[in-house]
Amino acid sequence: MSELIAMHIEQFKNFLQLYEINYSFEEPFFHIPVTGGSEITFTMRVSIDEQFYLVDCFLPNYVPDETRESVNTYITLLNSRLKLGHFIIDLSNGSVIYRTTGIFDDDFSHNQASIILSSSVNVFSESCRSILQIAYGNFDPFEMYNNIVGD
User: At CA 112, angle to CA 107 and CA 118, rounded to 5?
Assistant: First the structure.
């Protein structure tokens, strides 16, 4: 591990400790347990390199084979409205991730990290229930999207 990455890891640990955010660290990942607003528990994983920190929120369930295309359609619609971050579905195994990226400038910004982590939790929490309804309840992705955005 480079000295720069080690420094960024320490900066991120200090940020999490300062804001009393519960985490575990297993190199190269921080794992942050989250209970979202819709009472869905998920894991946020943060990985760090020399320039960026990558924040991934994982859907707690895998999407069944038969509904992956519908979920893919839905998250494509969601992605079209997002200003920060994006959803990804791995069509080979059905895992759904919400990903956001922060940048390490010369001076690590606690404000930027706070915005990125909180927006990741908020967007993912608000979207989990509808994604799971499409995955397991056979809801139509276009109807679900229109109900949520009101278009």
Answer: 150
